[in-house]
Design brief:
There is one protein chain. The protein is globular. It is built from 13 helices and 21 strands. It has 3 domains: about 220 residues, FAD/NAD(P)-binding domain (3-Layer(bba) Sandwich), CATH 3.50.50; about 120 residues, FAD/NAD(P)-binding domain; about 100 residues, 2-Layer Sandwich (Enolase-like, domain 1), CATH 3.30.390.30. Helix 3 crosses helix 4. It starts with a strand and ends with a helix. With about 450 residues, the protein is α/β, with parallel strands linked by helices. Bound molecules: flavin-adenine dinucleotide and nicotinamide-adenine-dinucleotide. Nicotinamide-adenine-dinucleotide binds next to helix 6 and strand 17. This is Putative dihydrolipoamide dehydrogenase. One of its GO terms (molecular function) is flavin adenine dinucleotide binding.
Length: about 450
C-alpha cells in the first residue's frame, strides 16, 4: 500500500509531523512496536518519572512547611503514588487515541518496521509481515537503555522497570545503588532520597552529569539531598545477589576495590539510538551519535528523514517534537522550506530537587570558543518567592555578548528553574538583547522577575 509518509516509531519524533501532514490531506502511516503513540516519553520516561518527582517535591516542601505553620505528619503511600503515575499514563494514552481517531488520513500500526529499500518498509505484525511503500520515510525509532557489560547487570532495574505502567517496585527501598550519574540516574536518586532511601551514585566520569557545564553542576550538587552519596571515577566490576534480596556491587575507586550493598541497584548508564533493521543497507549514513542529519532533519538519502533520539543530537522530548515539525515543513516545502532546527536553543532541565536548567551557550563553551561575554546574575537569596518558600539557594545566570549584548545563553539552579528556562530559552531563540529583557515587566512576586532584574544590572 502507498503512503505519502511512513514513520518508523510513533513517539515525539514522529507524531507531530504525522498529524501536521495528515491535516494537509497527506496519507500517513505510523508504525510502532508498542502500538501506541508517545514512545519512551510516556511509556517509561518523562511523564511517569515526573509524576513521581512532583510527589517527591511536595513531600520535601511539606517537611519544610511545618515550620511555616503547616503542621501534621504526611505519610507516603508508595503504591498509591505509583497508581497515580499509571493513571496519568492511561489518561494520556486515551487522549492520544482520541486525537488519532479524529484525524482522517492518519493510521497507526502495531509492529516492527524494517527498511527493505529506500521507499519500502516491511512490518512484522501480530498477523504476519506486511509491505508498504512511502514517498517519504521518517525514522523516529528513538533510543533504548544501554546496559554496560558488567557481570550481574541483569540483577539491576532500569528506568523501564521502574517507570513503566505496573512498575516492578511496590515499596520504597531503604537503600539504593545507582550506576550512572547522568540525567536518569541523578533524577531517580533524588526521588528515592526524598522518600528517605539512602542512595549511592556510582559515576564512571569525574563529575556528575558529565555532559553539562561543570559550573552548573558545581552549583547543583551541594543542593542535593544529604542522603545522596556520589562516588566519582567509580569503575563498577560486578553486581551479585546476597541473602534477603539484597544486592552487592563491587567497584574500583582510586585503585581500591570497594564492596557495598543495597536493597536495589538501578542501572542508568545511558541510552543508545535504535537503528531500524535495513536502514544501513538502504544507504542511510550513521554519525557518532546516531543517524546523521542536517538542520532540516534530512539524512543523506533524499526523502528519508531522522528525528528525535535516533539522531542523538538533542535527546529530549520537546526537541524531538520540534525536529518532527521541521521535517513536516521540509516535506511540505521541499527545497523552498525555510524552517530549520535550532539545536542550540533547546532548553534542558535536570529534574532533581532543586532542578538545574540551561539553554544556549554556557560559560565553559563561551570560554572554549573565545566568545567575549558579560554575565548578569540574580541570586535567589534576594527573591521574594524564594524567601516565601524558604528555598533561597541558587540563582539565575545570563550570558550576553560583550559588544552586542545579545543573550547567548543562561542557566538556573534552584527554585522554579524548570519554568524559568522557558522564558530564557525563548529570548535566546528570538535573539533578544539585555535591553529587551531589562525593559520587560517580569511578574512579581515570581522568580521570573529575576530575569529582567539580572539584565537591568548591566545598565
Ligand atoms: C527515565 C527518562 C526520563 C526522561 N525524562 C525526560 C524529560 O523529563 N524531558 C524530556 O524532554 N525528555 C526526557 N526523556 C527523554 C525522552 O523520553 C526522549 O528524548 C523522547 O522520548 C525521544 O522521542 P523519540 O520519538 O525520538 O523516541 P522514543 O520516544 O524512544 O520513540 C521511539 C518509538 O519507536 C519505536 N520503534 C523503535 N524501533 C522500531 C521499529 N523498528 N519499528 C517500529 N517501531 C519502532 C519504539 O517502540 C518507540 O515507541 C527521558 C527519558 C528517560 C529514559
Ligand atoms: N530531564 C530530562 O530532560 C531527561 C531526563 C532523563 C533522560 N533524559 C535524556 O535521556 C538521555 C539519557 O539519559 P541517561 O541518564 O540514561 O544517560 P546519560 O548519558 O545522561 O548518563 C549516563 C551516565 O552513566 C555514566 N556511565 C556510563 N557507563 C557507566 C558505568 N559502567 N559505570 C558508572 N557510570 C557509567 C556516564 O558517564 C553518564 O554520566 C539524556 O542524555 C537526556 O537527554 C532527559
Amino acid at each position: 500500500m502507498d503512503y505519502d509518509l511512513i514513520t518508523i516509531g510513533a513517539g515525539g519524533g514522529a507524531y507531530p509531523a504525522a498529524f501536521r501532514l495528515a491535516r494537509l490531506g497527506l496519507k500517513i502511516l505510523m508504525v510502532d512496536s508498542k502500538g501506541v503513540m508517545s514512545g519512551n516519553c510516556l511509556a517509561e520516561g518523562c511523564v511517569p518519572s515526573k509524576s513521581v518527582r512532583e510527589v517527591a517535591e511536595h513531600w520535601e516542601r511539606q517537611r519544610r512547611f511545618s515550620s511555616f505553620g503547616l503542621k501534621g505528619d504526611l505519610v507516603l503511600d508508595f503504591e498509591r503514588m505509583m497508581n497515580h503515575k499509571d493513571s496519568v499514563q492511561k489518561v494520556r494514552y486515551q487522549q492520544h487515541d482520541g486525537e488519532l481517531s479524529r484525524t482522517p488520513g492518519l493510521s497507526l500500526l502495531k509492529g516492527k518496521a524494517k527498511m527493505v529499500s529506500k521507499h519500502d518498509i516491511s512490518v512484522l505484525t501480530d498477523d504476519g509481515e506486511r509491505l508498504f511503500r512511502g514517498k517519504h520515510i521518517l525514522i523516529a525509532s528513538g533510543s533504548d537503555v544501554f546496559i554496560p557489560p558488567i557481570p550481574g547487570a541483569n540483577l539491576c532495574l532500569t528506568s523501564h522497570d521502574l517507570y513503566k505502567m505496573n512498575s516492578a517496585i511496590h515499596s520504597c527501598p531503604s537503600s539504593v545503588i545507582v550506576i550512572g550519574g547522568g540525567y536518569v540516574g541523578l533524577e531517580t536518586a533524588t526521588f528515592f532520597a526524598a522518600f528517605g532511601s539512602s542512595v549511592t551514585v556510582l559515576e564512571l566520569g569525574d563529575q556528575l552529569l558529565p555532559g553539562i557545564d561543570s559550573e552548573i553542576v558545581s552549583m547543583l550538587v551541594p543542593q542535593l539531598s544529604s542522603l545522596i552519596t556520589p562516588v566519582l571515577s567509580a569503575q563498577v566490576l560486578s553486581v551479585t545477589s546476597q541473602s534477603e534480596g539484597k544486592k552487592r556491587v563491587k567497584y574500583r575507586h582510586n585503585q581500591t576495590e570497594v564492596d557495598i550493598s543495597a536493597e536495589m541497584v538501578f542501572m542508568a548508564a545511558g541510552r543508545r539510538p535504535v537503528i531500524p533493521d535495513g536502514a544501513r543497507e538502504a544507504g542511510v549514513v550513521m554519525g557518532p551519535r546516531g543517524i546523521e542529519v542536517d538542520d532540516r532533519m534530512r539524512t543523506n538519502v533524499p526523502h528519508v528523514f531522522a528525528c528525535g533520539d535516533v539522531n542523538g543530537r538533542t535527546p529530549l522530548f520537546h526537541a524531538a517534537v520540534r525536529q518532527s515539525l521541521v521535517c513536516a515543513h521540509q516535506i511540505m516545502g521541499g527545497e523552498h522550506a525555510s524552517d530549520r532546527m535550532d539545536f542550540g536553543s533547546v532548553p534542558t532541565t535536570v529534574f532533581t530537587l532543586p532542578a538545574a536548567s540551561y539553554v544556549g551557550l554556557t560559560p565553559s563553551i563561551l570560554k572554549e570558543r573565545s566568545i567575549p561575554f558579560k554575565r548578569a546574575t540574580y541570586f535567589f537569596e534576594e527573591d521574594s518567592r524564594a524567601q516565601i518558600f524558604g528555598e533561597t539557594a541558587g540563582g539565575i545566570h545570563l550570558f550576553f555578548h560583550s559588544e552586542t549584548l545579545k543573550l547567548l545563553g543562561g542557566y538556573v539552579v534552584g527554585i522554579d528553574a524548570e519554568n524559568l528556562i522557558g522564558e530564557i530559552g525563548l529570548a535566546v531563540s528570538a535573539g533578544l538583547s539585555a535591553m529587551d529583557l531589562a525593559s520587560f515587566a517580569d511578574q512579581h512576586p515570581m522568580a521570573s522577575e529575576g530575569i529582567s532584574k539580572a539584565a537591568r544590572s548591566l545598565f
